[in-house]
């Protein structure tokens, strides 16, 4: 199994506002995986766990919300891992836009 994508995105919203923006924009986050669609999501404390289905495979991800940043981990199946750098760049871009 390939290493997960790990990314930190700074924000100045505070924890609660960042959570609200992520909750509202979860569909946009699913779009970072080519052909991806959100299949499930749930909050556990300040961590958002979600699954995306793409290319016939499931992608598990989590975003932990902190006061001044978020930390995302995305476990890619082998086929999707071929696009890891592009996915990481798109995740950074979408995440930054969501947290404005």
Tally the structural domains: 1
- The helical percent reads 25-40%
Mean pLDDT: 92
The shape is: globular
The name CATH uses for the topology is Double Stranded RNA Binding Domain
Q: Give the uncertain stretches in residue-range form.
A: none
Largest sheet: 5 strands, antiparallel
Number of strands: 5
Helix/strand-derived category reads alpha+beta
The CATH class is Alpha Beta
The neighbouring-strand order within the major sheet is 1-5-4-3-2
Distance separating the two termini: 34 Å
* Topology order in helix (H) and strand (E) letters: EHHEEEEHH
Q: Which percent band covers the strand fraction? A: 35-45%
What is the level-2 CATH architecture name? 2-Layer Sandwich
- Rg, Cα atoms, Å: 13 Å
Number of helices: 4
How do the helices and strands line up, and which of them pair or pack?
Elements: E1 5-10, H1 15-24, H2 26-30, E2 37-44, E3 47-54, E4 57-65, E5 69-75, H3 78-81, H4 84-98
Antiparallel strand pairs: 1-5, 2-3, 3-4, 4-5
């Amino acid at each position: 199994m390939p290493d997960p994508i790990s990314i930190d995105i700074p924000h100045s919203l505070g924890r609660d506002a960042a959570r609200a923006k992520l909750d509202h924009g979860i569909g946009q986050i699913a779009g970072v995986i080519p052909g991806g669609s959100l299949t499930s999501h749930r909050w556990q404390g300040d961590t958002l766990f979600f699954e995306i289905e793409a290319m016939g495979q499931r992608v598990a991800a989590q975003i932990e919300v902190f006061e001044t940043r978020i930390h995302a981990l995305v476990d890619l199946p082998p086929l999707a891992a071929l696009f890891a750098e592009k996915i990481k760049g798109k995740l950074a871009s979408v995440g930054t836009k969501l947290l404005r």
